[in-house]
Amino acid sequence: MKDQPFDQFKDQTDKFLGPTRELNKLTLSKLEQLASMQLASLRDYTEMNMRQLRAATDISGPQDLQEFFSKQQDFLKTIGEKLAGDAQAMASIGREFAEEAQKIATKGMPT
Description:
mainly alpha; rod-shaped; 90% helix; single chain; 111 residues; 0% strand
């Protein structure tokens, strides 16, 4: 009987802070996804650029230079596709966050 006020306080606190905890967990999860994606992208872009630098250092004559420049269009296309894919992935993470945050926000509301 003595614990009833404490139990009520705990229940009210859990009801009030529950959605906040869920939102914090969701935020952390999405931040981890973004950080992981950004690190992977950084690695990919670095590798692509290092390949370009290596190819540039291998130029020893006009034929090599012509070949290097002819491959630049493919390189730029690859970079463009990668940028578009990364932008779509980031937008998807943002949409997922917004949808899940909306569910958390409306879950605690009286109906």
